[in-house]
Design brief:
alpha/beta, Rossmann fold, 2 domains, six-stranded parallel beta sheet, 14 helices, 14 strands
Length: 355
């Protein structure tokens, strides 16, 4: 079985990481590629097809333009693991698979895209092309049950969708968790972007309901989208600190510096930070009515309102995190490995190739 994994030059190298404060799709793609390469006993010939990044037209159009002229004859499967337009005109008998990491732009009522000219162009041109590319793909890999449900609701044939969950990095499993030193403050943490969809303002509301100096709230993420509005919302509460972008090499240490992790997002195709935090033994608080897949939200504390979230935080500070729940959540989160994802992806290749 001969498979081509499609990407941009450098995307398969596990060195180029995003500056958003979250793990980028680029890193997921590169680790998946390495995981597939390590399936040595499988009958798999895997090629990475890297297209040059053309600065004048951007990454999406770089793949779209160059893939249209590329000769893919001889491959059994062409796998596009990222959400970028891919239109292979010369693919012979190859079947196409596209991975969907989330369809929030179809099911998010807020639709909080980048308001810059570049962001508006992306929303008006690139996004429709990417969706059309996904629509005409022979098969889809959805990273969660929620993405599959959304794809079916969108009109994609349910029999052509495979669910293969994302994975946490090995560093979240291998690095030793050190016992926290006694300190006077209970540290609540957030790590991610500051889009409206992330609902960070509700977490800030909850935190401001907590009385006294026994708490602090550290927010890590790039200064974009709703950042300025959130800073205004914080006003003079010095217990709330915006820390800036989280360096990828320090993310594990950042999680370890928290006593609890809050992730109030309204929609997540997967919700990787939830599992990363749980893998480090942290209690994770989410918004109860958020659209987050069942396989990720399994061990979360679910807050119905800012008042309820504040109550959960107070209880965690006063009573601690139940050790049995902590171990179960940590073990579960650590089961989302690249080896498992690679093996399940190979299983999809086998099924598609044999149909």
């Amino acid at each position: 079985m001969k498979v081509a994994l499609i990407g941009l030059k450098g995307q398969f190298d596990a060195i180029d990481l995003s500056k958003t404060g979250t793990r980028s799709v680029d890193k997921i793609v590169s680790e998946l590629y390495n995981g597939l390469c390590n399936l040595r006993e499988k009958e798999l010939i895997l090629d990475k097809i890297e297209f040059k990044r053309i600065k004048a037209i951007g990454p999406a159009f770089s793949i779209m333009l160059q893939s249209s002229f590329k000769n893919f004859e001889g491959y059994d499967i062409l796998h596009n693991p990222d959400f970028r337009p891919f239109f292979p005109m010369r693919k012979g008998k190859a079947k196409t698979i596209s991975t969907s990491h989330g369809l929030e732009f179809l099911f998010d009522p807020i639709r909080d895209f980048d308001r810059s000219l570049r962001g508006r162009l992306r929303g008006a041109i690139v996004l429709p092309l990417a969706l059309y590319s996904l629509r005409i793909s022979d098969y889809m890999i959805a990273v969660s049950s929620l993405v599959k449900e959304n794809a079916i609701e969108w009109g994609y044939d349910k029999d052509r969708i495979f669910v293969v969950n994302n994975f946490i990095g090995k560093e979240f499993i291998k690095k030793e968790i050190k016992e926290k030193k006694a300190r006077s403050r209970f540290v609540l943490g957030y790590l991610g972007t500051f889009r409206l969809r992330k609902n960070v303002g509700e977490a800030i509301k909850a935190f401001t309901l907590l009385e006294g100096n026994g708490y602090s709230f550290e927010l890590w993420g790039k200064q974009s989208f709703e950042y300025e509005n959130l800073v205004k919302q914080v006003a003079n509460d010095k217990r709330i600190v915006f820390k800036g972008p989280a360096p990828e090499e320090k993310i594990v240490d950042i999680y370890d510096s928290f006593d609890a992790f809050v992730f109030p997002s309204l929609y997540e195709g997967f919700g990787l930070p939830i599992l990363e935090a749980q893998a480090r033994g942290l209690p994770v608080i989410i918004y109860k009515y958020a659209k987050i897949s069942k396989e990720v939200r399994r061990y979360c504390f679910e807050a119905e309102s800012p008042e309820h979230m504040a109550q959960i935080i107070e209880q965690l500070k006063e009573k601690g995190y139940d050790e049995k729940e902590r171990k179960e959540a940590m073990e579960y989160a650590r089961s989302f490995t690249v080896e498992k994802t690679a093996l399940e992806t190979y299983g999809v290749y086998e099924k598609v190739a044999n149909e």
